[in-house]
Amino acid sequence: MMKKILLAIGVLVALVLIGAGTAMGMATHKINKTYDYVALPNITRDSSPEGIARGEQVFRAVCGECHAGGGNTKPVGGRMFDFPAELGTFYSANITSDMEKGVGGWTDQEIARMVINGIDKNHHFRPMPPFPNMGDKDIAAVIGFMRSGHPDFAPEKAQPPRSELTPPGRMAFAFAMGINDKGRTEPVPVPVKAADSVEYGRYLASSVYDCTFCHSPGLESSAVKMQHPETLLSGGFEFDLVPLGGEGKLLSPNITMSETAGIGKWTLDEFKHAMVTGVTPGGFILRPPMPKYRYADDVELTALYTFLRSVKANDKAVPPPTGGRPKAEPSADPEKMFSSLGCATCHAPGKAFEAKLQGAKGKAPEEVAKWIRNPESFKPGTQMPTYESLIDENNALALAKFVLGKTGGTVSEGTAP
Ligand code: HEC
Ligand code: HEC
Ligand code: HEC
């Protein structure tokens, strides 16, 4: 998703810079070549309870965003609509522990190399944006979680097709993003985890959660963007909302500590609240592709904030998205609430989670109202924001009845949950 614009522009750059014919041949060669010289990193699973817990944090916020899409928590893979069609048809892979269709037959080191280099078990390049600077310990933790026996990784037979790159797509991956064929021979450390550590916050923001990539302008990798403090985290990276089920364009916001253009007025608690629930202090709903960091703990969120405070404040304002931002202004009219609270951006006909509303079908309005205020308590890690602080129980109930009307069922009053 996040690499999308990078890819699109990369194509243009590649086409202009290099004679199209030769370049195409070179790109195809780079994509199809056997990377048997890329060393396996010396990383094996961390199966300690702390390792597994850490692995779950990273997996849910990072890997799960692509491998377990559409509100699914099982990483069975599937079509990724947020990659641009000009570059190909993209599918993330089944990475459950199935021996044949999943990664049950891969060694830990093979999974680690896939994460670092994007090179698979059979030494082939796969079109996944890799994590070249994620620390050994965090990769070991992710693999520990994947191998922990957690039910989400139970073998599944799903087999999404392989992604198919168009010629421009091949050019983009081969040249604009580049294929990282340098095997990791030296361990990459994870900085000491502490709330007041700028370094730990910087590591999370640039090498794990990639805030720096989505929230800085331009198409380069996070590592390159980190070298440009004058624009770092000042927003303006362009997302197309249409493939995500929305309308128009969305520029990522400036998240430097500028008081006028960024989040300089946000307190630490407001920041934490927005990151976890998807609701900003001004009552705006944060939509995908902004992930929710429900698994991040207090120390991580504080370290991120500490790091953001250390970044040069940038007063350049980013224009608001087409059609404005969905704002939480609860009213007694459920139809109005459905659009003002941003429910429609996910659940209206044609939007990304239209079908998910059907999950409420046949349930009691009281139960649905509880879901609406706190979906996290029913489904950890869900993309749906937490509305608890924005709507009271009465408004939630009105909304629940309205939503049940949309599921096609009759809304019975006072059914026991
Ligand atoms: C931006 C989306 C995205 C993210 C984030 C992502 N992946 Fe992937 N992953 C993909 C795509 C796309 C493929 C390749 C599918 C193909 O080759 O058609 C893939 C392939 C894989 C494969 C190869 C599976 C196979 O059966 O061949 C593994 C293993 C994998 N990813 C693990 C991970 C892990 C672990 C993480 C988190 C550290 C992660 N991925 C994060 C999109 C993503
Ligand atoms: C895949 C891209 C992506 C990643 C990764 C990402 N963001 Fe965002 N972020 C967005 C987009 C897009 C929005 C705007 C969403 C909207 O308005 O609906 C946003 C909104 C925000 C906002 C709200 C700003 C405001 O003025 O309302 C904050 C704060 C934020 N992100 C912080 C972060 C941090 C910190 C990280 C890393 C831990 C991060 N984001 C990672 C894309 C991303
Ligand atoms: C950012 C996208 C998003 C927004 C905004 C959103 N939802 Fe959801 N909603 C989801 C997803 C995803 C699911 C499916 C749950 C899952 O699998 O994670 C869901 C599920 C539901 C369900 C089904 C519950 C069940 O029992 O299965 C209801 C009802 C619902 N949402 C109502 C609402 C209402 C009302 C609002 C606005 C107040 C809203 N949603 C806003 C993404 C969203």
UniProtKB/TrEMBL annotation:
Q: Does the keyword Iron apply?
A: yes
SUPFAM superfamilies assigned to the protein according to its UniProt record, in alphabetical order = Cytochrome c
Q: Which top-level group of life is the source organism from?
A: Bacteria
Any one Gene Ontology MF annotation carried by this entry is: metal ion binding
**Region Disordered: start-end pairs:** 315-336
PROSITE patterns to which the protein is assigned, alphabetical: CYTC
Locate the compositionally biased regions of type Basic and acidic residues: 326-336
Asked if the Swiss-Prot or TrEMBL record annotates the protein with the keyword Transferase, the reply is no
- One Pfam family name is Cytochrome_CBB3
Entry-linked InterPro entries: Cyt_c-like_dom, Cyt_c-like_dom_sf, Cytochrome_c-type_DH
Keywords assigned: Heme, Iron, Metal-binding
Q: Please report the stretch or stretches of sequence annotated as the Cytochrome c domain.
A: 50-150, 329-407
- What name has this protein been given in UniProt? Cytochrome c domain-containing protein
